[in-house]
């Protein structure tokens, strides 16, 4: 099998075409920035799923005219205009109706309440425990017992509300070395946390099922206060 590397990497590329690609790319890039500025958003962390869909649509409309001579720029400009009009219409109705806003943007998701995972949260496809633990570690959270409430916002940010130092309870550790020491049979009596729901309780020797979620995998619970 003989491969034509020139056809694969260069094709019909010439100085004139390179210049055209350069100009097209600059124009389309500026147009995308203008449309994003008109949307009112200032950063990726502020984007909801709906707005991510808008970004993908803009990228798709902008991509081909950057390098394809058969795609003029004007049709993409029309697509941009339609996208921003649709965006404005949807955001208008979302501001008028809470139900419509929840339909489009989604709803905030309670992940932790009173130092434990909300039951059923792990069945939700939007919840990834490892990523959530990483977010907690970045906020200097050592275990679930330090957190009174945690809410996964529609933008992907997580809002944490903490117990005071006096109110901290035993909780499931989120540091990898501690969390990975999982047990299904308790060797000695102590406070342990269920790895599934975060329920912390005093366990006797032997196998134990969690009375909250019926799972049987445990990690030694800790009760340290937050240090910032």
TrEMBL record:
GO terms for cellular component: plasma membrane. The lineage of its organism: Bacteria, Pseudomonadati, Bacteroidota, Flavobacteriia, Flavobacteriales. This is YetF C-terminal domain-containing protein. Belongs to the UPF0702 family. Keywords: Cell membrane, Membrane, Transmembrane, Transmembrane helix. Pfam families: DUF421. The chain crosses the membrane at residues 15-36, 48-67, 73-90. It is a multi-pass membrane protein. Its main location: membrane. InterPro entries: DUF421, UPF0702_alpha/beta_dom_sf. Residues 96-168 form the YetF C-terminal domain. Signal peptide: none annotated. It comes from the Bacteria. It is found in: Cell membrane.
């Amino acid at each position: 099998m003989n491969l034509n590397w020139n056809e694969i990497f260069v094709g019909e590329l010439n100085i004139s075409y390179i210049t055209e690609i350069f100009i097209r790319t600059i124009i389309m890039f500026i147009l995308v920035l203008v449309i994003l500025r008109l949307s009112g958003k200032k950063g990726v962390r502020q984007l909801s799923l709906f707005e991510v869909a808008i970004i993908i649509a803009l990228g798709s409309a902008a991509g081909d005219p950057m390098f394809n001579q058969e795609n003029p720029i004007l049709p993409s400009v029309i697509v941009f205009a339609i996208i921003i009009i649709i965006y404005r219409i949807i955001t208008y109705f979302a501001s008028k109706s809470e139900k419509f806003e929840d339909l489009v943007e989604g709803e905030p998701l309670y992940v932790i309440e009173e130092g434990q995972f909300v039951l059923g949260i792990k069945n939700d496809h939007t919840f990834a425990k490892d990523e959530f633990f990483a977010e907690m570690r970045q906020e200097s959270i050592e275990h679930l017992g330090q957190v009174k409430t945690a809410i996964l916002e529609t933008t992907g940010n997580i809002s944490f509300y903490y117990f005071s130092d006096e109110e901290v309870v035993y909780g499931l550790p989120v540091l990898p070395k501690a969390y990975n020491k999982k047990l299904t049979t308790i060797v000695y009596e102590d406070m342990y946390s269920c790895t599934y729901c975060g329920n912390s309780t005093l366990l006797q020797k032997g196998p134990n099922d969690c009375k909250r979620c019926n799972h049987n995998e445990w990690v030694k619970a800790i009760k340290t206060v937050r240090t910032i």
